[in-house]
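Section 3.1: Structural characterization of target chains.
Under the original work plan, the team committed to producing a structural model for every single-chain target entering the pipeline before any wet-lab resources were allocated. The record below documents one such target. The sequence was received from the expression subgroup and is listed exactly as submitted; it comprises 306 residues.
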Amino acid sequence: MSEVTLFENNALANSDLFKSLQDVNDNLLSGSGTGEERRRISLNGGKFREFINGEQVRVSKEDNVNMVIVNAAPISRTYYEGTYDPANPTPPKCWSADTNSPAKEVPEENRQAARCMDCPQNIKGSGQGESRACRFAQRLGVVLEGQLDKVYQLQLPATSVFGDGKDGNMGMQAYARFLSAHNTPAVAIVTNMRFDENSSTPKLFFKAVRPLNEAELQTVVDLKDHPDTIKAITLTVAQTDGVQKETPVALPAKQEPTKASLFDSEPSEETDDVVEEPKKVATKKATPAPEEDSDLSAIIDNWEDD
């Protein structure tokens, strides 16, 4: 029997049983490296851009997107040497997983200082204008509403992270505090992210849309520690795009990425506005933003009534 006959004359080829067994092939192929897709969402140019394995495949026509935050790495910092060239992307020169010292994966000759606080790239004016050359960053693993099976890496510029959330326009830190005040994990909520039309550089605001239903929540929870999600929050943009050899960045001790602590930056693609380095202050109970309080309460009430 020839190979052609084997495939053409198989009466079971379209049966549900036959299709259900295809996962065996998937297991055989796993680890081959030939079919792996690295997905990320870029904010370059004030547009949501989908990249797969370093190639841009789609640009959203909308200025807002609904997504679910599946997992997040702690806040970090990244330094790129020179000016970003989209035609010739390069890996970062130095980076820190905990904002205190260079990551152990950074080659000794590339380390700008032993401690971030002493680094010349952490001085105002070391970057463009009054900005710092080494920028705050945090990688998120997200899925899009209606497409919960595909994990994307998302990096937010520092301007999308910090701020006090005036008039309901919440950056990620303010949004995370708001959700925590309502005892609502980010992974259980559909979040809308939209561009700030008044910002000259890509800047996002975040808002709760609705709770996930039971089936959606189970899907997302199963993805929280999935290898695709872990890579999304541990690999740099250059590694995700295949520009740099894959070496997952070790997460800081005692800061497991199982709760979405939400900050990030995409320094290789955007020029951030000047953002003051966050100061450590005494922790106090977060208070919800009054503009959003009734909205989230209604969302939670409706969920409980289902």
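Confidence is low (pLDDT under 50) at residues 1-8, 24-35, 254-274, 280-290.
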